[in-house]
Amino acid sequence: MDELDLFRGFRQGVTPPDAETQRRAGDRLADALEPASSRVQVPSRRQGRRRLAVLAAAVLVVVVVTASALGTARAILSQGPVHVYTGTFRCDGKRGSFEVHLRFPSTGTRNWRIANGTGAYLRTTGGGRIPEVGGSGHAWRARLEGYLAPEGARQQRIAIILSERPNGAFLLTPLHKGALRRDSGTQSSFWTG
Asked: What percentage of the chain's residues is helix, strand, coil (to nearest 5)?
């Protein structure tokens, strides 16, 4: 006797289930399956909108970051390295002397800082930005704005006007009250870059 005959013989003499037994078995199966299907939640409209808004914000961030990175790379590749011109102005005034170092990068912000002070400018630190510059030779003029801090004093907002180059004049004007006073005198400059 082969195995298939054994299997067929196993079911012999068993009566099939009646309609009531089949119904009860169907009800039990439905009860067993219902809790699993009730756990699956369909998102509400509010949740769907919230997810859509978060997805849109994430896509916007990715687009902005990618565009920024591509723009920066394009700028670097098209312009090459940043070239910086520097100017040093030796200013001799009635209250002392100091040097102003100007920095003009081919891209970015023009700025300046003060160094090597004597008299009222001894150990003075500070700097700022260059909002105006233009002309050449005797018509050259630059306006510097920023903050200076004499030794032991608070920072003070000032403006410095430099005129003519390579030799000309300067005018330092305090824009707020503080330790520094209005000063003027001569200046001489040299440039590199």
From this structure: 35, 35, 30
